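Q: Could you write out the predicted structure for this multi-component system? I'm mainly interested in how the pieces pack against one another.
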Amino acid sequence: MAQETNEKAAATPVTMVTLTIDGQSVTVPKGKTVLEAARSVGIDIPTFCHHPKLKSVGSCRICYVEIEKMPKLQVSCATEAMDGMVVSTNSDQVKQGRRAVIEFILLNHPLDCPTCDKGGECDLQNLTFAHGTDDSRNDFQKTRFREDDMSTTFDDKSIGPEIVLNRNRCILCYKCVRSNKDAFGEYDLGVYERGNIAQIDSAPGEQVDNPFSGNLVEICPVGALTNRDWRYKIRVWLTETTPSVDNFQSSGSNITFSKERQKNKIYRVTSRPNDDIDDGWLPDITRYGYQIVNSPDRLKKPLIKKGGTQVEVSWDEALDTIAKRLANIKDSKGSVCIGGLAAPSLDNRSLYGFSKFFRKVLHSNNVDYRSDCRMLPSSSDTICSRLAMQPFSISDLDDSDVIVVFGSDLIREHHNEYLRMRKAFNFNGARLFSITPYAVKAADIAELEVVHRPGKEEFVLQAVCQAAVEDRLVDDQTAGRFREQVGNVDLTELCRSAGISTDSVKQIARALASGKKISFVVGEIVTRSREREPIAAAICNLNKLFGLHDKGQVAILARYANSKGAQKLGVVPVPHKMLVDKMNVLWSETPSCEAHNTDAMLALLKKEEIDSLFVLGANPMMVYPDLQFAREGLERADFLVACDLFETETTQLADVVLPLCSWAEYDGDYVNLEGRNQTARAAIKPIGESRTGFDIMAALAARFEASDLFEVDAIESEISQMLAIADTPALPQEYTQVRASEDKEKDGFDIPLYLCDDPHHSGHLTEKSPSLAEFSGEAYAEISFDLANRLKLRNGESVRVESPVGKIIIPVKISEILNTDVVLLPRNFSSTPTTALMMRKRRVDMVKLSKVDD
Amino acid sequence: MILTEESIQKIKEKAARYPHRKSAILPALTVAYRQVGHLNDEIYREIGRVINIPPVEIAEAATFYTMFPKKPVGKYLLQVCHNLSCALVGADSMITYLEDKLGIKKGETTDDGLFTLISVECLGSCATAPMIQINHDFHENLTREKLDKLLEELRAKA
Amino acid sequence: MSFYSPVITNASEATSNEKLHLFKYVEDPQQHKSEIFESHGGYTAWRKVLGGMSTQQVIDEVKNSGLRGRGGAGFPTGMKWGFVPKNSPKPTYLCCNADESEPGTCKDRVLMERDPHGVIEGMAIAAYAIGCHIMFIYIRGEFNHCIERMEEAAREARERGHLGENIYGSGYDLEMIVHSGGGAYICGEETALLNSLEGERGMSRIRPPIPAIEGLYASPTIVNNVESLAAVPHIINRGADWYKALGTEKSTGTKLFSLSGHVKRPGNFEVELGFSLEKLIYDPEYGGGILDDKKLKGVIPGGASTPFLTPEMINVGLDYESLTTVGSMLGSGAVMVFHEGTCIVWIIKKLIHFFRHESCGKCTPCREGTGWLENMINRIEAGQGQPGDIEKIEEVCGNILGRTICPLGDAAVMPIQSAIKNWREEWQYHIDHGKCQVETDFSFR
Ligand SMILES: Cc1cc2nc3c(=O)[nH]c(=O)nc-3n(C[C@H](O)[C@H](O)[C@H](O)COP(=O)(O)O)c2cc1C
Ligand code: SF4
Ligand code: FES
C-alpha cells in the first residue's frame, strides 16, 4: 500500500495549456477556465454568477467571450481553457451579448439605486455603466414582489437576525444559496418557484442565522441581501477603509474596516480575501464582532477601588498606585508573590511587554496566557506542548485526501478550518473522519463519525494503532517496534471501553494507511482535558505508526487570535528552552525563581502565598473551568489589577481597573495558528482614555525606572528575533505506553458536561456586539432529542443542571446533532456562569439534569 | 403530523430503493400530495424528517414543479389543458364553458368546495384533444355533452 | 373515462405489416401483460442478448441499424452508448426519458400504456450495453396511468425473471426504478432530468461534462427517449440490416408521429421515416384532411419548438434531413396542423406562454427574455401592438437564440422567428389594425 502511495503522488505533473486572449498569449494549468486564464493576465471579464470559490453554473451569461471556430458566444466562467484557443473578450459580438444580458437583467429590476445600500459598490450598477445602454426598451410593468412585512419599506423582508431580503433587486445569480449550501453546509436559505418568478427566501419556518450568514450579504452582487449592520447608515463612498486582521479567531482572517472619515467610528467589516487563510469567507463572529469597539459600555477611564466602590481616576494616579503596590509586594514578600495573566488575543507587543515587565522588571516568572485551562502541567516542555508547536497550514487542508478531526467541534472553535474541510470534501472529494465524545456538526459530511465515551480519547487512538498492526496496514518492522514498545493490547477490549466499534477504528486505520496527504487536527476537547498529556502521547504514537507527519500534518489547533504569538513569545511560566535561551541573550538574564501557571497562581492566591495578580485583558472569572476555585483565588488577592475593554466579572473584583484599547485602535501584530505574523492596522483612535497593553506595561516600567527596556524599536527587533526562532521541537522518538487516568468518583451525577461556545459568541467580548447577541440569544443547554424526551422537556423550557458544586437553571435547546447523553453548555454568557458547575480536578465534569416545574 | 403512518411508510419504502436518499424527494412529494391534495411548508418539514433531508431542499424542489397545488383545492381539481393542440379544438372555450357552468373564474373553487378550475400546460393528449385532467385521471376527446355528463357523475359521487 | 388515446396505426396497404414493429400489437388490449407480450415474441431479444452477445456487439448492432434518438435531437443511439467509459470505477446508469411534455407530442405515452414490456425490454438491452445495473424511467408526473402501468410491468418482469438478479442464469443483475416527475417540461431536457431525478430542482446543467461521462450522481449516464429504446429489441431480433432497410438512407427505421390540431383524424401513427407529410395530413388512412374541409394555413412538423411549414412546403418527407432542408426539424414527431381560420399571433401567444411558464429560470436570457416576449406578443394579440414591436421581438429572439444553457431558449424563439418570417404581413396587420385578419373561433363542440 505504501508503494502505491508514492507512485501516485509522483505521477501528477501539472500540464499547461497556452491560448491567446485578445492577442495576448496566456499559459495556465490545464483545467482552468477561460475566465481564470484571462484574469491571470489582468484581462477583466465581467461576471455576476461566478465566484472563485464556488463551482461555475454559467447562468448569468454576462461573461461571454468569442472563441474562434465556435459560432456561438461562450461563457468564459464555464469554458475550459484549451491549447490553441483564440479568444476575444471585446469583439462586437461580445459587447452586444453583454449589452443584451444587462438589458434582460434590468427588465424587472426596480432601479432603486438611490435607496439601495449597495449603491456605489453594486456589480449591476457598475457593469451597467460599463457595458449597458442608456435607455430602456421595456415599456411593461415590472414584476414586483410585494412583502407583507409592514415594518420595512421598499418591499424589504427580514429573513434573519441580520439579513434583509429585497426580492425585486435579486438577479438570481444563486450565489447566496450556492455558497450557503456548498461552502458552508447550511440549509437555512433556498430558492423557490421557477422561471421568472423564481425567488430567494429563508427555509420554511426558519431564519437565516447560520454562523456564516454575513457572507451572503457580501457576495450578493446587488442590494437584494443587505444587513442591518450597514443598512441606511452611511453610503459607501463616504467611508474609508483600513486593512486589518480578525481578532476573534486563531486563523486571523483578513478583514477590512470601513469608517467614516470624520467620525471615530467603524461602520462595518468586510473580507479582504486571502486564499491562504480565509478564501474570502468571514464567519459572522468576525464580521459583526467589531461592534464591540463602539459599544457604549466601553471602559473609558481608569478606576480605583476606594471604600468598596470603584471610582474614576486619572491614569497617573492609577499607574502610580499600581507601581507602588507592586514594588511594595516585591520588596516585602518577593517577586514570586506577583502573578500575571494575559489574554491570548492581545498583540505581540502587548504580550511581549507583559512578559518582559514581569520577568525583567518584577523578576517574576508567574505569567500565563491560558486562563481557560485547568490542571496545566507545571513543566512547559511536555509532549502536548511540543505537539502544539508543530507546523500547520490551513490551505493544506484543501488537497488533503484524508482529514481526521480529533476532539474538536470545529464549527464552534475554528470557523475557517471548518470551511476548508468542507471545501476539501465538496471540491476535492476528501474523506473526513471525526472522533469526538459527542456528535458534532462537521460530521454531516464525514465518511465516519466516531462518538466515543467521554474521557476515553486515548483508548480510541490506541485502538486505531492496534487495528493497523493487527490488520497489517503498516510494515512488519514498524508493527514489530510498536508491539515491542507498547505491548499487545486487546483491540476488542479497547473498543469496548471506549464505547466504539472495532469496525470503525479499522476503517480509520485503513484511511490513515492509504491516505496520500493527511491532515490530523486536534481541538480543544483535548487541550482542555486534564489528561492532555497521555492523549498527546497517543497522538504521537499514531503519528509515528502511520508516518503522518511525512504525509501531511498533525496539529493541535491554537484557539485564539494570538495564542500562537503568546506561545512563541514565551508568555508561559516555563517557556521552551529555545525561547529561554533567546530571552537570556536579549535581556542578558531571566529570573530563576519558581514559576507558576494559571492553576498554581490561583491555588497560591487562595493560600495567600501569592498576593497580587495583574490581569491583562483576560477574564478568568468567566473562563476558568472551575468558578469556585477562580473566585476563591481572586477574592483573596491583596491587590488585583484588571485591564479590559469592559467591566467584567474579573474587573469587578479588582482594586485597579485600566481601560484597554481594542485591536481596531492601534497597529498590532498577531501570529495566527499557522505561525503567520500579520498586522492589524489602527482604523480609529483609541476610545476614551483607553491604552494598549504595551503602553500600560511601558508606563509601569517607567515607574520602575526601566523605560529603556521598553523602547519601541528595540522591542520590535526583540519580538522579531523571538518569532524567528525555528521552534519545531522534536516529538518522541519512541512509542509511549499510554496510561491516562479516569475520574474515580461516581456520585450519582451521570450526564457528562462539556463547555463549548456558541458559534456566534465565543469570547467574553462578543457579548457586547448587538448583532452577535441577537444571533446567540441567551445561554442555553444543548441536549439530544432523546434526552429531552426522557426529561419531558421541549425546546426553550428550563432545565436544572446540577453538579456536586453548583446548580444553574437554563433553557434547553434540542440539538439536531447530539445523539448521546451529554449536555453542552456555552461559556461566556455573563448571565449564566456555567463554569460554576465545574470541578477543576475532573477529567470529565458530570451533572444531573431535571425539569423545572413551575 | 399531517402525513399518515401509511404515507410515511410508503415514502420510506420508496426512499430505500434509490442509490441516493435525495432522489426520494419527488416520490415523497407525490405520496404527500396524493394523501393531502396539496403541499405546504409543514409537509416539507415532515418529509424532511422522514427522509433526513433539510426541509429547504424539499421546498425548493416542490415549488419548482407545478403539478402539486400549494394551497388547498376543491375535491375535484379540474385541470384543463390550454396549450396549442387543445386550444385549436376549443380548449379556451371549454374553460369559459366551465367557468359559466360552475359559476367560478379560472383559479377559483366553487362554494361547495367541490371543484377548483385551473388551466395547465400540455398534458400529452394532443391527438385526443380537448382534454381535462380531474385529480389524477385524464378525460379526453371531450365534447359539451361528455363534459356535462362527467361533471354530473362527479357531483353524484361526492 | 378514456385512459387510452385512440391509436391509429397504418397497418394497411401503405406499409406492409412486416415493417411495423412499435405499434404492431398496441391495439391488443392484453399486450401490457407480460404473458401476452411474451406470446408475441416479447423478451426474445433480451434473452438473445443475455444468451451470449457482448456489450460491444449490442452497441455495434444498434450503431449499424442507424437508429437515431427519437426524443428530438436525433443523435445516433449506438454512438451515444459508445461514449460511456469502459471500466468506469463508478456505476453507470440508464434513464429512459418519458417526460413527454413537448406540446403536440403524445406518442411515448401510447407505448408505455399499451406496450410497457416493450419499453422495459428496450431499456434492459440498453442497460446491458452500457453496463448498468439500476435503470430508471422518468415519467412525467401527470401520466398516472403510464406510471401505474410501468410499475406493474416492472413488477411483473421481475417476477417472471426478466429483471432482478442473475437474469436467465446469465449472472447479470438489473433493477428498474419507475420515477415520476412533478410537472415541468424542462425535465425532459436530459441534464434537467438528471437533476430532477437526484432530487434537485429540475434545472439544466452546463455541458461539458456530457451525461455519458458524468450524469446521474456524477456517474456515466445514458438518457434515451422511450421510443428510441422501444425500437432496440426489434433491431436485436431482426438485425441492423432489416432496420436499415426501412426509412431513408440517413433516417432509418420507422417513427411515431402524433398528429393533432385541425385534422379530421388526429392520432398517433407509425410510419417509415421519409413518409410524406402531405400524405400524413390528407390521406384518409391517416389525418384524413383538414377539419371542416378548410384550407391549410400551416404545420408545425416536430413539436412546439420546431419552425413552421407553410402549405407550399408540406410536400416533404418526414425525416431528419428533408425537414432540415425546408428550414424546420423532425423534433419529437409532433405534427400540429392549423387551418386558414387561425391567427398566427394567437398561436405564438399560446406557445410563448408555454415556454415562459416552463423556463427553469437558471439563465438570464431565457428567464427574462421569454417573459418579455410574452408581454410583447400578448399586447399585439390583444390589439395594442405598437410600431416597432415586430423588430423588437426579432431582436430579443436573437438575444436568446444560441445564448442559453439548454436548448429551451432556442425552442422558445425558433417558432416565433419562423412565424414572423412566414406571416410578417399578418403581424403587421395586427399591429396596424389592432385586430386579426382572420376570425379565430375554435369553439368547443
Ligand atoms: C426543453 C427540452 C425538452 C425535452 N423534452 C424531451 C422529452 O420530453 N422527451 C424526450 O425523450 N426528450 C426530450 N428532450 C431531449 C432530451 O434532452 C434528450 O436529447 C433525449 O431524451 C435523448 O434521447 P434520444 O437520444 O433517445 O432522443 C428535450 C430537450 C429539451 C431541450
Ligand atoms: S439574493 Fe443576491 S446573491 Fe442571492 S441570487 Fe439574488 S442577486 Fe444573487
Ligand atoms: S459569470 Fe459566467 S455565466 Fe455568470
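A: Regarding packing and overall arrangement: The CA atoms of residues 783 and 814 of chain A lie 5 Å apart.
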